[in-house]
Amino acid sequence: xxLNASSARDEHPRASWLSWTHAMEPNDPCLSPMAFFIxxxxxxxxxxxxxxxVAGAFMPRSQAHIACDAWDAWARGDDARSQAAxxxxxxxxxxxxxxxxxxxGLTSLPEHIGQLDHVVDxxxxxxxxxxxxxxxxxxxxxxxxxxGDNALTALPHALGRLKMLRTLVAxxxxxxxxxxxxxxxxxxxxxxxxxNHLESLSPHLPPSITALYAASNQMTSLPDxxxxxxxVQLIDVQFNPLSEDTLSKLEKFSPQSGSLTxxxxxxxxxxxxxxTLG
Length: 278
Known about the structure:
- By secondary structure, the chain is an alpha/beta fold.
- Helices cover about 25% and strands about 10% of the residues.
- Mean pLDDT is about 80; it is low at about 1-25, about 45-60 and about 270-278.
């Protein structure tokens, strides 16, 4: 029974060890009795419990596995941290690409979160985080990051290193500004920074953004660089104290002549709460 190692999670960085054993057939003179036994044991176990769990059980200790031990040490004596460490170990050992640490009441995260470099979706919502570690920029595979409903006063500069991130949800925090490095997030499509303390929108927003949620902040104006983002299709700035001049400007706004799609613009107005432009 030959097993193609790519049938397990292709993203799993520790598949090379399995592929070595599966590349050998029973009559291969290079296959030692021990290697043959390991190959057949893995194949029989896979048929019973599935690829992902076997990969987690038989791979050499990776950076992520070593990180589990560090999480355990960090968690010692703290219930919330212990629950987080258990979820991290579960994620690593099963080779799961999503890590959910939401709703645990965490007040901080360890720097070694950056060692979980296989994670694609990271959920940190509904905690008590006041800051994110700079090491979060090491999560190069991350596509979605959820940090809403915390107490963040700033986002780390290292976010700019997340070149594959497509969704960033940071609503209901205490943000007053956005990092300049955000312009380097060239795959970012959806940005939710609603319910914060932003007085203006950063000129460093990446041109890749298609949906911008910035409702319930403290903005009095909407800069031209926001409405001129080349790919934006939705801008929500409701429940902001926008000035009369800004409201008048928005009511007369029309997309640039080169725009390929209409822009749905939500803003506070006595006459109506939304308009479709284009």
